[in-house]
TrEMBL record:
Coiled coil: none annotated. This is Dihydrofolate reductase family protein. It comes from Kocuria subflava. GO terms for molecular function: 5-amino-6-(5-phosphoribosylamino)uracil reductase activity. SUPFAM superfamilies: Dihydrofolate reductase-like (SSF53597).
Length: 193
């Protein structure tokens, strides 16, 4: 059984993207990228929405106009071997980037729990819109945030506004660039697990 995790990079005021949808402000330093790389070594499965799925296609082949660092090459190798579930009613199976990928036309909380139950290691929900139903339902086991020392004043919130959570800190790390990595788990356990 996998550990259902919601991981994201977030501004100090709680947003994953600014009001225009930009998230370039969250580009990680080398040390933060190394922490992401270490984290991804434990991820067996990703659940993500269509936009994020299409964005992450970047890691399937090195662009011809740039050269990846060795850390980026390793991240790409790890990413390509993860089982990915793309929540989309508009993508087709022909548009999937890998044989490790599967379409989920209607992503329900029950389907998220089923994916986690059938997986091993870390099962990560990637993206606040995709994760919101699972967060509200209380089935997320680990919340992992990379908090960037920037205030955006608005944008796409990392957590649903109607979520009510009681969490306990299980790990933290502060990077030289001011980014703080924190991990939390629900204080009262997880619903239905």
């Amino acid at each position: 059984m996998g550990t259902l995790t919601y991981a994201t990079t977030v501004s100090l005021d709680g947003y994953v993207a600014d009001p225009s949808g930009d998230f370039q402000w969250s580009a990680p330093s080398e040390a933060v990228f190394a922490a992401h790389l270490e984290r991804m070594r434990h991820v067996s499965t990703e659940i993500l929405g269509r936009k994020t799925y299409e964005l992450m296609r970047y890691w399937h082949s090195e662009p011809s106009d740039e050269q990846w660092s060795s850390a980026e090459q390793e991240f790409a190798k790890l990413w390509r071997n993860i089982n990915t579930f793309a929540a989309s009613s508009t993508l087709t199976s022909e548009q999937l980037a890998s044989t490790h990928d599967a379409l989920v036309p209607a992503l329900t909380v029950d389907r998220i729990v089923e994916i986690a139950r059938e997986a091993s290691g870390v099962v990560e929900i990637f993206g606040p819109t995709t994760a919101a139903p699972a967060i509200r339902a209380g089935v997320v086991e680990v919340f992992e945030f990379f908090i960037v020392p920037k205030v955006l004043g608005g944008g796409l919130p990392a957590l649903p506004q109607d979520a009510r959570l009681e969490l306990k800190l299980t790990d933290h790390r502060i990077f030289d660039d001011g980014t703080v990595h924190v991990r939390y788990s629900p204080t009262h356990g997880v619903v239905g697990r």
